[in-house]
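Notes from the 1:1 (GR / supervisor)

We went over the backlog. Supervisor wanted to see one worked example end to end before approving the batch request, so GR pasted a single chain during the call. The sequence is below; no edits were made to it. Supervisor asked that the structure be written out right there so they could see what the output format looks like.
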Amino acid sequence: MTTARKAMSLQTRMILLVTVGIILIISSVGAVFSSMVASSIEDQIGKKALSVAKIVANDPELRRAFDTASPSALIQPIAENVRMQTGAEFVVVGNREGIRYAHPLPDRIGKSMVGGDNEPGLAHGQSYISKAIGSMGPSLRGKVPIRDDDGAVVGIVSVGFLLEDIEEAIGDYQLQVLLLTLIALVCGIAFAIWLSRYLKRLTLGLEPEEIAALYVERNAVLESVREGIVAIDRNNRITMMNKAAIRILDLPEEDIHHKQIWDVLPDSRMPDVLKTGEQQLDRETITSGKEIIVNRLPIKLGGKVVGVVSSFRPKSEIDKLTSELSQVRRYADVLRAQTHEFHNLLYTISGLLQLGSVQEAIELITSETSAQEELILFVARRIPDPMIGALLLGMHNRAKELKIQFVIDQDSEVKELPPHINRQQVIVLLGNLMQNALEAVNEAGVQQKRVDIYLADTGEELLFEIADSGPGVPDELRDAIFAYGFSTKAGEERGLGLAKVRGMIEEMGGYILVGKSDWGGALFTVSLPKRKEEGQ
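Structure output shown during the call:
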């Protein structure tokens, strides 16, 4: 059997099953609803009869009429007026012995009330609803005793509706229910046909067995990756969490699907992404007492955010890899720059020696050696952190290679980074900003090629300033340059550095400003608080 034939078979079976199910459900619901309607109508009419009877029984004028010589003359008009206003079939008033004082048929006034259901009201003073056959036929009655000023029962009011009229009203409603049931049945069959076609499109024509196989493969793929993966739906419920996530977050081995994300991960920011629809890449956070690097991406369907998926790894693993790569890159840059410079220096010394200018060669060697030693001593004394110092020396050598004046402000001083500030993140953000400055100056074609660096840890904050003599940043782009993917340079994989820098700075509770340097280029100012704010 081909896939097309199987899909057709599935569609046919689905239509039949859904249709039979709809017929059974609608028939059952129709019968139950019809019974409920009949019961409800009867109940409502009974309550109405009892309510009208209470109004009549508590009428002061009617109660005073019992003490007159001819009670019927006063009571009959009152009862008839109420009957006509309420639509009741009869409003009958009787005395303590059950003799009628009021009746819709005047010739029956003065005769005994019929039905045999007056005892609870006359003997025990109860208000109630009853069914009985009276002088006008079977009826549903509301019975209420009439009391004098001393509370003694002196009579009874009976307000009734004929059962024949009630059954007729119920029949009308049941006919409407039957029509609605038939309409619902037709709509249900049409819905079954539409549903089967919709599901066929939704499943891309796949059979249930094929869908199950894809689901198993998907789970196998998720469990095979080393990164933790968590997904939530639009209601912040967890829809998926792989074993790597449970291991990284030290969560108990239990079923956490469909639980609220806050119940499992109270500090999660996935609900923020669900609200804003903005992705968060390479964010550092602390979850379950562990530092992790996390990416959070919205899941969109038809332009609407319907969920969020988050992938993460322990920061220690990322730091280890990043540190190794950063060291290799720094060493390579330094060696490359020094090799190039020393080649030029050796060529110059060789030329001086060939020309017999020995003294000039000695002076050149002394000058180059002392300048390098002074820079190294300055960095070692004022910026003792080896990673920051190595970064500055590497960038200095890179600038020399590009013929750019790289100046470290003599007032710069960073003795020690606070424990909560990640050294690796500081290296990354400084490296990005200095590399951008070198590229801006090198590509601008300006006469004065200069990059100035200032680092300070005085006061309550760490302050970094990177100024250059490049083209600068236009005022209208000072916010846009921090957006993911935005870049004024050509080429792929651009527009990530500054976005990443701002994300790391915000994670550490700081801020970054963009201004204009003294040479008309860009000035980036970074401020990081030395003290970690609560909740950060």
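Supervisor's comment: The chain is about 50% helix and 20% strand.
Batch request approved.
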